[in-house]
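Translate structure to sequence.
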């Protein structure tokens, strides 16, 4: 027993690491002869100790020349593990911070918080790599890495699935594929069955990971599919007439018009554009009853027109038109906006009735968010600094004729989830309010004279506004952004009744 060496260098383990013990107590692990000499010096052995002297050191499983460790291979693998973990953490952090602080729904913010927690776990994974690919002084460093790699695998599968389902290419596609390949490689390199043997409750760990992944996926589906389906936009536009009045000379009629924009649903919406129009209808009484021929003529002029037995509608003169709700503003659930207008026209105008109609176009706030500062800035087709307001720009051919003037609003739409922002191409909304160059404001007898201001809308990729949207494009917009076009019922009041109410 007295001749037994006090210091023993044991056989290399599966990674080439050799345990060093003194009197059967481990004092360290070394990868190479150089690390062994450093360990011995820290233990107080002389610098010139002869490691080949069997009276001082006993070698098991090979002499001092057996060091199966491949440092470059080990360090390369560790570096790839760290790079993959930090890349995954960056993706999760970007999604988490954006949604936790700015998601358009409460559940979206919860989802963002979960991604932030996952980002922290991925960061801890990168730190644990140094121990697991090193001396493994921490018991659960392998389990931490296994959890982190599993999270990365599930997240990359989720993002890749959303990308494929959307059918759109973004540069992030290569990132999802790279993370998926890295996760598969990392799982194989980790050998999960060995790590799970070292964990006290491996089933609990697996169940926790699956439940967390299921919660994130189901929450994403809930916010992006179920909520929009179960909570449709419920907007109402209503036009009302107030009590009219006249000037002192009793030559001008002042007609108050109230425009109500209501949100009676459970989801907010952002206005893209609005317009109201006030018409003076001209008609004459005919003693001979109208026949089918006259009714056909009326329906050709306007398919939704009313049919009269003893009235011949000659046309409508546009008295007033404009916006009534600021583009880019939002309306929350159970909120109502009221705009009051005063419409003026000659009291002696030969109208038989006054008609008012209004419309508004909006998108759901939980499906898309506009930069209201950018969208509220109008773009003019004419030179606003010149005295003659010289025409400068033409709208796309499907929007207006060359020379027509317009005011446009333009801004990028940000999706309600950062996942969608990363897996969908950027989209921009453009809303034109057009005034034709031959504008006259009246169309008494010519059914082809549509000279009143009108609106046009497109949501497209950048610089693709010139492409006219098809019916399928609009169907996609209605589905993707909850695009909602709302019209008020036609409001009509006879001019004699208005004059009587004004005291004439």
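Result:
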């Amino acid at each position: 027993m007295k001749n037994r060496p006090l210091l023993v260098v044991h056989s290399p383990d599966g990674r080439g690491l050799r345990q060093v013990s003194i009197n059967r107590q481990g004092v360290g692990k070394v990868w190479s002869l150089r690390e062994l000499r450093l360990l011995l010096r820290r233990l107080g052995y002389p610098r010139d100790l002869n490691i080949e002297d069997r009276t001082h050191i006993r070698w098991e499983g090979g002499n001092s020349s057996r060091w199966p460790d491949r440092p470059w291979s080990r360090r390369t693998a560790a570096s790839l593990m760290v790079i993959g973990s930090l890349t995954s953490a960056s993706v999760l952090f970007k999604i988490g911070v954006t949604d936790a602080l700015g998601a358009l729904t409460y559940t979206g913010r919860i989802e963002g918080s979960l991604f932030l927690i996952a980002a922290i776990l991925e960061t801890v994974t990168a730190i644990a790599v140094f121990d697991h690919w090193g001396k493994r002084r921490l018991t659960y460093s392998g389990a931490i890495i296994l959890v982190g790699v599993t999270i990365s695998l599930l997240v990359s599968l989720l993002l890749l699935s959303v990308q494929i389902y959307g059918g759109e290419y973004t540069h992030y596609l290569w990132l999802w594929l790279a993370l998926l390949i890295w996760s598969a490689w990392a799982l194989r390199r980790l050998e999960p069955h060995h790590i799970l043997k070292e964990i006290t409750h491996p089933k609990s760990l697996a169940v926790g990971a699956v439940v967390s992944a299921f919660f994130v996926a189901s929450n994403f589906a809930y916010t992006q599919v179920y909520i929009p389906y179960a909570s449709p936009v419920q907007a109402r536009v209503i036009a009302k007439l107030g009590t009219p009045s006249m000037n002192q000379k009793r030559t001008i009629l002042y007609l108050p018009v109230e425009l109500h924009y209501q949100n009676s649903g459970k989801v907010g919406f952002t206005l893209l554009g609005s317009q109201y129009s006030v018409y003076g209808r001209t008609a004459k009484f005919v003693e001979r009853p109208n026949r089918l021929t006259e009714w056909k003529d009326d329906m050709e002029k306007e398919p939704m027109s009313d049919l009269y037995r003893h009235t011949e509608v000659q046309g409508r003169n546009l008295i007033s038109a404009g916006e009534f709700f600021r583009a880019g503003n939002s309306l929350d659930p159970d909120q109502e906006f009221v705009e009051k207008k005063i419409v003026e026209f000659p009291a002696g105008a030969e109208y038989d009735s006054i008609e008012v109609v209004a419309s508004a176009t909006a998108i759901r706030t939980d499906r898309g968010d506009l930069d209201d500062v950018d969208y509220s800035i109008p773009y003019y087709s004419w030179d606003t600094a010149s005295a003659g307001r010289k025409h400068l720009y033409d709208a796309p051919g499907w929007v207006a004729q060359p020379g027509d003037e317009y005011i446009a609003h333009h801004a990028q739409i940000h999706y309600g989830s950062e996942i969608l922002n990363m897996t969908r191409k950027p989209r921009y909304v453009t809303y034109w309010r057009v005034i034709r160059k031959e504008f006259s404001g009246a169309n008494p007898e010519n059914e082809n004279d549509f000279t009143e201001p009108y609106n046009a809308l497109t949501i497209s990729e950048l610089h693709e506004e010139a492409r006219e949207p098809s019916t399928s494009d609009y169907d996609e917009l209605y589905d993707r952004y909850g695009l909602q076009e709302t019209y008020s019922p036609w409001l009509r009041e006879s001019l004699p009744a208005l004059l009587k109410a004004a005291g004439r």
